[in-house]
Specification:
- The chain has nine helices and ten strands.
- Helix 1 runs antiparallel to helix 9 (293-323).
- Strands 2, 3, 5, 6, 9 and 10 form a six-stranded mixed beta sheet that branches. Strands 1-4-8-7 form a four-stranded antiparallel beta sheet, with no helix packed on it.
- It folds into two domains: 2-24 and 292-323; 32-282, Distorted Sandwich (Coagulation Factor XIII, Chain A, domain 1).
- The chain has helices spanning 2-23, 40-47, 55-64, 67-70, 84-87, 231-237, 246-251, 281-287, 293-323; strands at residues 32-36, 76-77, 114-116, 119-127, 133-139, 161-164, 167-169, 172-179, 184-194, 200-209.
- By secondary structure, the protein is an alpha+beta fold.
- It is globular and about 40 Å long.
- Helix content is 31%, strand content 19%.
Amino acid sequence: MTARRTATGIALFGLAPLALTVLTATPAAAHGSMSDPVSRVSACYAEGPESPKSAACKAAVQVGGAQALYDWNAVRDGNAGGTSRQRIPDGKLCSAGNDEYKGLDLPRADWPATPMKAGKHTFRYKATAPHKGTFALYLTKDGYDPTKPLKWSDLEAKPFAEVTNPTLTDGSYVFDGTVPARSGRHLIYSIWQRSDSPEAFYTCSDVVFGKDNGGAGGASTPAPTASAPTDHQIAAGADRSSMDMSHHDHAMTGTGGQDAPAAGNSAGGAHPDGAAAPVDGKHLAKTGGDGSTAPLAIGGAAVLALGAGVLFAATRRRAARHQG
């Protein structure tokens, strides 16, 4: 029995680092944000979380802190399940009801914006890790006033662009959509609803059709043009990002952040086949993993078991030779 315990112990000790390497290979912060047109949080992150340049981004940091910008790819609701309109209250669409991102909800007409034209446009969504799911893009209605809190009723009822599992190219989801005609300042709201988890991600992208007139609220000075963060900027701030996403489920307030069982198929194309997520959705939302998390865990356990068996058999053979 001593030889067996020794062999098993050696196997577990020697192979544990390998198994841990396999298990930790999954993304810890698997998220993303719109890069064309540039989302508010991405534009402010590109300016520099500690010292943003534009007045709007400075105000956002004053209200919500710089950490929200380091977490630019995690504006989310882990239990959305296709019920975003019911979970996220008016006035909190850009933060997804998450208090950490409340600075993004500031009603202003000077957020950095992306020039936009009516007609066909190629959209890009920077994905720090891929997920299966549906993107739905909504445009604000004529008469939109950016100086007032954004409400669901400010958006068109139906998305002008919707796509499931678009192509992932050079780290970004790329898909086309036909943009309706508008004039002046408007906003494009995106919902990325995962189909392998209840989790959904959200962005507010400020856009300008023609001359920036500040929307219905007017503008005293033109807002700066938004720029997406470069790969170098993203890499430079990665160590400041909140890798443990579990606090988000509890930090959110109001109907937008309540923990609740995942809903079935609803708006935004979530769970189109009505099937439940293959792995616990809440766990996936916290870890940022996807359906590969479970196979990797099983694989790590298999490595340990196989190693223990090999060493145990070798020890038994050596013991038998000594006895003979």
